Amino acid sequence: MLTLALLIAVQASAEAPRPGPIRTFGDWVVACDNVKACEMTSLWPGEGQPEEGSPYDRLAASARRAAGPTGGWTVEFQLSDDRKDALRVTTEAGLDVRGTPREGMLRFSGAEAGRIVAAMATGTRLRVGDETSVMGMVSLKGSSAALRFVDAEQGRAGTVTAAVAKGGRPATTVPPAAPLPAVRFVRPGGTPAPFPAKLRAAVDKESECGSVYEGGTGDLPPVERHALGDGKTLVLLPCGSGAYNFSTRPYLLGAGAKPVVAAFDGEPGMAPEGPPDLVNARFDAATGRLETYAKGRGIGDCGSSAAYVWNGTRFRLVEQHVMPECRGSVNWLTVWRAQAVGR
């Protein structure tokens, strides 16, 4: 007999994905995924990049909270160099938490993370440094609003577990963490079908993907072919490129059948009204994941990424990350997760 949790997960897997919300408050972006795990991350203060050597250009912070009554905080600071000595996290209001970074990251959990989050709700900036100097700073403008957003999304407002919207209701009134939706997929196997030059020329013409390379020199970029299993082949047809993004149009090949554009959950392309052109696509035969990574600009501080698996009919979304603000954060926030279950 199926457990209630599995029944919920199976039912959710049959529905179209509904990624969680993402919002900007001042110098912070916050998002919660489809099972209410939430994360907020810092941005450069203001609209432009800080001047070279500015303490705001040498530090980035993020805070994550798991869903459910016992969900706790994890706080991380991404450092601009690989410091190995003990560091202090301070605010002007008296916070002083100490830790030792590893591989350029300073991490806190449990009570220490809770103290940092409490200070974020009332402070104006977080500072990281040693006993004598400050190596980096993070603006806290908007952090209180972002924490309040997490309280609301996780059902904590009015409870003793809230970060900002505190109340007297006990932790037991916070909704439990939901299970990840389960997405069944076909494990890759077999040999990719051929895609001869004549067939490519026909598809290039019909799709107009070949025309985007007119006037260029040399041969067209090569086509990628990947066996999906059940006699299907994924063809990634080059369809344009820029300085840091490379587009491909995904086609499906079957035995003796005409290539057809692959179907997807949602809108994976850069232009929602058009075909599902994938950006910087990569297929991993070991996991069956088709991944995309679209940068909004070259330094990678905004954009979106996604991962899909093939269920025999369409590519189903199993992971999605978004960063809507081009203001220094390379920590793109999770808005969708699912558990891929092979068959």
Automatic annotation (TrEMBL):
UniProt superkingdom: Bacteria
Pfam families documented for this protein: DUF1176
InterPro entries: DUF1176 (IPR009560)
Protein name listed in UniProt: DUF1176 domain-containing protein
Species of provenance: Sphingomonas spermidinifaciens
